[in-house]
Amino acid sequence: MAGPNRSSLIAKMYKVLKQQYKPILIDGQRPLLEHMLYACCLENAPYEKAEKVYQHLNSSFFDWNEVRVSTVKELAEAMRELPDPTAAAANLKCILQNVFETTYSFDLETVKKQNIGVGIKRLAKLEGASPFVVAYTTQHALGGHSIPLDRGALDVLYVIGIASEAERKSASVGGLERAIPKNKGREFGSLLHQLAADYVANPFSSTVKNLLLGINPQARERFPKRGQKKDIGEPLAVPNSNKPDGKPSGAKQVGKPVINKGTLDKSNREVSSHLDKSKRDGTKDVKKAGAAGSAAADAATRRGATKSQSPAKSAAKAGRSERGALARHGASHKSATKHLSKRKPR
What is the pLDDT at residue 31? Predict the structure, then answer.
């Protein structure tokens, strides 16, 4: 989309939002860390619910250290009024854990003394600090010019036609800070966030649709369809609450894996071929084993038959051998007698 067209859409959206919503002022006296924790509650949620959940955390837990050592499940139960309590609890716990491991305290006020660019980079390195949390803290705690954009705001900007599909996935919309002056940044950010929270709560609401069409009539082409799965971006990894120290795994996971159908079919064919080959080899082995078993059985039968001859046959065989020996002895005796009878007397 061309630059002037985008700028005109941003200006028109600002005008329509001021007619529909009222700016919400945020307490700027909070410490920097508490701004980040509040932003975890505010992401994709209305201001009223975020403030209520944040105050509930302050009153239900002894201090931030108790929140840090609690499991994600326990925190999600305390933050159940938010649109995505598990993700909010995971981000909040990760930030507290990272800050504690770095400073052995729950204080980030030294970031305010650094250059704003250095401070933003330091906040972005904290695990659990989403782009929305960093932008919100930059705007309210560091005095920088940054428009906080959560998933709802990115979806709204995409439907209106201000953000492209690539910008929605990267959570960065170019030209937004240039079109909105710094002295109007907080007001515009609060108005946009209210629209985004309403969109997340019910994207098929007629009020939300009419508001978006009032900004850009061509937005109808990009309205979400009923039954269509939302692209919720790249969620942060949830810490493993089964670990005794409750430390996060430190990795991000990218929603559901994309499965290539061709690769899956090829894998299935390879598995089937391997199974068929194993089956054939097993059949051959069984046949060989059966033949070997039959030969062994025949040999055993023959040995058993030889050993199982009756005693009568054995005795008869012994008698025949004895008679043969006697006959040979008698023949030898006759020959000797005949030889002596032929000799002449002296």
Answer: 95
